Amino acid sequence: MNISRRQILILLPAAAVAWKSVLAGTPEASPNYNMTDHWWGMLIDIPKCIGCGNCVRACQTENDVPDGYFRTWVERYHVTDENMVSPEVISPDGGKEGFPVAAEDAGKYFFVPKMCNQCADSPCTQVCPVGATFVSPDGAVLVDQKYCLGCAYCVQACPYGCRYIHPEKRVADKCTLCYHRITKGLTTACCEACPTGARQLVDFKNPNDPIHEFLKTHSVQVLKPQMATGAKAYYYGLDGSVR
Amino acid sequence: MSVFKDAKHLFVFAGLFVLAFLVFLVVRHYVVPKSFGEYGHYRGAAIGEIAARPIKFAGHQTCETCHSDVLDVKSKGKHAHVNCEACHGALEKHADDPSAVTPVLPDTTVLCARCHTASAAKPKGFPQVVPADHSGGLACNTCHKPHSPEMDAGGAK
How much is the pLDDT for A23? Predict the structure, then answer.
């Protein structure tokens, strides 16, 4: 086959355009999902948490979180009679295998599950120099791992300590609010695995979401409200000593 | 036209500048991903890529489509609101192809203790026992049915 110079000049750009569209082709995961109809958050009901660690294990399974890193973890607070101001806080291996038995003694105990607060005005996305992390139109704080440089500015910026640099991928990693699940109509892995209903996915834009009734009738609080992060992890029964 | 006399070198530089700008525009067009800026200062296609990740937990709705018999038992008992995979683990692979992955029956002495071992740290209303005193090492399902754990005359199942 003889191809003239003119034909090559026409064919090369055409091939380049075709190849580009091949590279760009990303399968649409959930065709019936409309981002503008949702605004996601989480409700954490502290009096219901028993510190079993099911959420931590479920999250690590669902999202292939490496050992020793956590997208969600559970802390146990012990406010003693002697020191009501500075509680003792433990979180052995993120509470993954539960907590040591606490003997009956004075003071109060409670568990605080923690995770990305999915902030609407998130400090982490604002410091990213390359636009690799962002708040999606439906309110999930996500990381574009193909774009992330691994500079870890966002890890430092998060006031809640919810980000880490993935030890193998060398890019920022964090809770996605199980974005791959909630866009398919499922709840997050941590909510699915929680035996007591201490964690509930909330869609603030959906008035039929049963959690709206709870939010209307209970006082809820966010972590570090003074930081004005627009956190969307709402805590019910949050003690003032929680940092 | 005396103004432009001896100004050729300026035109050359101006021309180079315009050329460099055009090159910049062309390179930028190819380097910046198409979806960048679609929703904000980030690659819009990343949202779809993250949403396309595979799930591992099937979700209780999926389990219940086949295991409706268990749902009937469970929905009447104390564990009505405990989802299947909270105890049985992530089983999307089983839901996808039931013959490919057979779930392992959890060991109740370990499983139940995770939630129900007595500890002063747990909420007071939550049912708790000291396993050694309560059953003396017997497996919980000797007396309780895990799906509906109220003690019942029938004993184990």
Answer: 54
Q: Which fold has domain A39-117+175-236?
A: Alpha-Beta Plaits (3.30.70)
* ipTM of the complex as predicted: 0.85
AA letter at A89: V
Residue A18 is predicted with a pLDDT of 59
DSSP per-residue letters across B42-62? SBTHHHHHHHTSPPS---HHH
Question: How confident is residue A20, by pLDDT bands cut at 50, 70 and 90?
Answer: low
Query: Would an 8 Å CB–CB cutoff place A92 in contact with chain B?
Result: no
Q: Do A50 and B36 touch (CB under 8 A)?
A: no
CA-CA distance, A214 to A197, in Å (whole number)? 13
Prediction pTM value = 0.86
Contacts of B50 in chain A (CB under 8 A): 142, 176, 179-180
> For chain A, what is the radius of gyration of the CA atoms?
22
Using CA coordinates, name the residue in chain A closest to B61: A186
Q: What are phi and psi of B103, to 5 degrees?
A: -60, 145
Distance from CA of B123 to the nearest CA of A (A): 6
Per-domain residue ranges of chain A: 39-117+175-236, 123-173
State how far the alpha carbon of A192 is from the alpha carbons of A53, A79, A180, A200, B59, in Å: 13, 30, 14, 9, 7
pLDDT at site B155: 43
The structural domains of chain B, ordered by start, are 2-51 (no CATH), 56-104 (1.10.287), 106-157 (no CATH)
Distance CA A136, CA A141 (A): 6
